Amino acid sequence: MRVLFSLTYYSPYVSGLTVYVKRLAEELVKRGHGVQVLCMKHDPGLADEETINGVRVSRAKPLMRVSKGFLSADWMVRSVRAVRNTDTVIINLPQAEGWIPAVAAKVWGKKAVAVYHCEVEMKNKIVQAGLEIANAVTLSLANTIVAYTQDYAKNCRLLQGWEGKIKYIYPPIPVLKSDPILEAKLRKQIGKADMVVGAAVRLAEEKGMEYLLEAVPFLGKGVKIVVAGPTEPVGEERYKRRILKLVEHLGNQVVFLGTIEPEKMGAFYKVIDVLALPSVNSTEAFGMVQAEAMMCGVPVVASDLPGVRVPIQVTKMGILAKPKDAGSLAGAIHDVFNNRLKLQINVQKVKQEFEMAKAIKAYNEVFSMPSKA
After folding, report:
1. Global confidence as pTM
2. Which pLDDT score, from 0 to 100, does residue 233 have?
3. DSSP tag of 246
4. Distance, C-alpha 146 to centroid of its chain
5. What is the CATH number of the domain that holds 121?
6. Within this chain, do residues 189 and 66 fall inside the same structural domain, yes or no?
7. CA dist 202 to 205, 250, 257, Å?
8. Is the bond preceding 12 in cis, omega lying within 30 degrees of 0?
9. How many other CB atoms are found less than 10 A from the CB of residue 156?
10. 297 lies in a domain?
11. How many other β-carbons are positioned within 10 Å of the β-carbon of residue 164?
């Protein structure tokens, strides 16, 4: 089977969506599929064409940036060529330009699968409306729509009416092992603390980092917040300045570790007591880092939001907190920390629930499903 992934950003850019696609693409390669990724050349220093762990990556040259997306004539040319030479196109939404390979798939009689990773809430409502129209076109052309959970899908505006062709598949999540050298380095960076609360996030507004920082006074002087993730995400400069202003008042209680390679995140989970996911809106649909942490024996506190609450609900390995409520978040962190040994007995259940092989099997079933478009 020849599979083409369409998405705006791909490795080395790090986000939940790019990690998802990279894991799935590389697992399909291991199982004998021919896999290509079509993405934008978001960094001029990147190669137009390269192969990463068996995945052929083609990057279209953008003409200009619009918010976090791009306009590109090269994208249209590469889309048509790539779709003609594949069997199945997996279009990862949100993606403003995703309708182009979706139309090409329709024209050339190829199967189109739309993976609906999340809804985006943007300050510029005109740009958001344009993105949603483009995504709606892609959804209408897709033979199958993949959503992470039914809980999230039933709360999505754009997925209403498409229930007949939605298949629910958890994200591909591996069991991560710790790197002892990296683990020792991280412990040195963090220093002494009575409680270490981890946050594996980009500094992006939907992640709700301000509420975690505002929870620090409730948690006490002995707590440290350690943040793993990119500190220069696209289009989030204003939010970053806001977060850094809050950090100034907390001194060494907040430690930024920078980006840790996804496959090495096991070391990060090894050095924290609790993982916090204080997301605030529908741009967070699941939070793969929750399942990763749980598999490593780390309990979780997450916002009680559609989709985001599912890992805790199905495993009982954490506590949900009210979104945008620092007090509720602090209380849940305290409760999880004090009961973490009891919560850790569910690790095996977590591994069974989110087993990578289940996601790969489900996608292979999607590839062989009859058309419903």
Report:
1. 0.92
2. 64
3. H
4. 15
5. 3.40.50.2000
6. no
7. 9, 19, 12
8. yes
9. 18
10. yes
11. 7
